[in-house]
Amino acid sequence: MGFLAPLAVLLYMGGRSDFVRRHAIESLNFQITLLLYFAVAMAFIFVTIGLGTVVILPVLGVAAIVALIVILLATMAASRGGDYRYPLTFRFIK
Question: Residues 53, 59, 62, 63: what is their CA dihedral angle, to the nearest 10 degrees?
Answer without folding.
Answer: -110
